[in-house]
């Protein structure tokens, strides 16, 4: 029987992609996908997936490459589960609820080559890519748009989904896996930024789990499946492939609110759906009385539904099944297999049995509860707890780039340790008693308590923190933070302040809902926080109630009839017992825009009415006249006007009716189309052609070129949003708040870079305490707008002339906060800033980027160069450095002097030099210059120019003198006018230039900080420091052996020789007796004297 082994015929790789081929043959003419007005058959879906796989292959994507998707449940999201692996690549679904920082970490970790992104999330993904380091490759983007109109695309968006699909070959020979163990998906467990866990699953696992899901849930052929479970949740528990195997219909839905779900169930005769517990709560607490026409099978996971929820589900016609699984197992692996005899039990007993997770599914090999230390199975008594372990085809390949994490999870004994604590009942059914200490399941999302704790520990007032789960009637669980504050605090933070601190640093679903301040956290004898004690305290706090609609504000966005009452209405009123269940109706016939002219009222009298439907009465108070009883008016209704007060019931619940202005300025690279105008009109908005006070928002195209009117909008402090925000806005009928603009922040392009336009509050004061020096307005791309833009960001702005005339900028703060803005264009455009070489510089477009984004990246500020003296008659050069090698004799002294910098001031004096001894000592004094003098040159020097007529020849020399009253050292230096170059790094003569990359740090430190150390480097046989790459001697470029014979370099050498010859002549003139006599006529220099007050 040795010949009875594997062979090519019986060992072909298992893959769920074959399900699609079969569905195209068996169910080719039946619906595969329904989404709004879009529908596809299985033969069409098969064809489209082949086309897309072909296009991806033509882009060079294939085996081993990772392709990411950020999209809600749309047809492209479903098709990509087949198309991506069909080209050999690995599918990576990204969680829509993550923030841009976390998405950036995951994309870098996965090294994704391409990202399919829905138009609603484009701004989010662009912010994520903007966080990439400059040296890290960024993936290209393909835009998933719901409308058929292709938008104008800008890099990094290379195409639309439909555009890319149409380029493909429908007869593409798709890439079958070489092995069934080849990876097919990558899913991240929790998105933690500290250590992302990327779960890799194989084609084999996806195939087996898909079939297993159909068997365990008893799914018949051709079900109608509603996608309420996000496909990014562990690949929709493997049901994208499973529904293809059964030839079912996928009904896609972006929204998961109760009215939408009930509407889709009724219109499409839904038979099956999966849902997180939070969705079940939403469905079963919705104000619906009549049961469903046909039963709907619902599969849920996570925490078991409460008995009341299950009873309500049965009344409505839902058949709820409860399962257990995890990302590491790609779906449900344990389910509560129901026994027929249990149907005869009381409701409370049935609920108790349903709360158990159940037994392993058909395709699972084994499941057990073991002692975590010994690995021995615990007693099956329903009391003794242990860790849940599983093994079988469901288990992942491992964690991407995390061998240690994989070994901790998958042990050598052949089991996957889940980290969940459970008990085994006598009948073999599993019941989860607790989950891993560091995981909280909130609304179906797994979140790490460790990550929340890390943010809490970053709060300056927090000494210790621990986060556990607290029961929540709506979300199942929410984070509850126990905090011990530091001792000696002058002001103790409130719970609201701590929550706001977390909200700025975490995705919203990870922010704690409760903060409990304690004098001390419970600990073991070894100092470990006892989280089980805190869990009991959180349980004792009770379950958080579902959030009630706000009674302070309601916003109406569309025409229609809106009910006001105590229960099941659009406007809920609970604070007045005299309010009926349906008390009144607000009838909105048209949405009239607010008149933008001052002191003008909009005509609302014919468009909005209120109608009384109660027995207690509804009252209205006009701006003029007494209160009226609406129920006594004709037809029990009256018109509503801006400013009216409406009281319901006994009068406790009073609302003021106001018209909220929505005036849009459209900043677009394309012509405004009629559909956009209609959307604005439908919500009662209007369009303006100016950016005056009446303008509330500026609508911007994504990745449009930066234009002057957009700069003007930022200067006017307007909120800039994408046009897609308006579409989302228009979808709402009534809400307790205006939809947030946070996910619709626009990004524009300028000079090949992407610029994010932050909220006006973020832009304010982002450049505070900085002074920017500008040249003439006509040199800058945006002219006078640049000055206004910087001032709006909190900066001071001064012209070059004013800065120089005001005692060299002494009224504008420290030099490390004074920045010269270099105009865009060639360096020779203007060289005025060469006279301010001791200041920081920044490019015009970089500072515009900072003002737009509300964040100043210090790396855009270019440091000034450090002048280091050198002489041809010495074999040593003093070079600034920050290491801790041997220092010069003057370093310690300079550090001491610099530490007293606050007590120093400058006094400008004039001095006449006629002593030849002083001139002869200059070279020696250069070398003896202390580090304080070098620092002084960097921050405080302004060179004075003098001219001396010598034998008819004009020689220009910059003479600067430094004096320290404490040590009496005086140093002078010569410098030839650097008129030939606009680059301040180039200094001709015997001086060497060092660009210190750390200079910005040293400048921005406190006065008591130490200055850079100074060291001596021996030049050996090398001429004037040419052996150092960061030293630029004499000419524009360092010498290189490879330059021998180069004509350009030869010319530079000749030019240098001519220059040195001129310097030698000048030195001779100054050093001989004749030159000394002529020098007494007017060799004057400016002295900056530092004196202690």
TrEMBL record:
Residues 562-621 form the FHA domain. Belongs to the Nibrin family. GO terms for molecular function: ATP binding; medium-chain fatty acid-CoA ligase activity. It is found in: Chromosome; Cytoplasm, Cytosol; Nucleus. This is Acyl-activating enzyme 6. One of its GO terms (cellular component) is chromosome. It comes from the Eukaryota. InterPro entries: AMP-bd_C, AMP-bd_C_sf, AMP-binding_CS, AMP-dep_synth/lig_dom, ANL_N_sf, BRCT_dom, BRCT_dom_sf, FHA_dom. Its main location: nucleus. One of its GO terms (biological process) is DNA repair. Residues 1064-1093 are annotated as: Disordered.
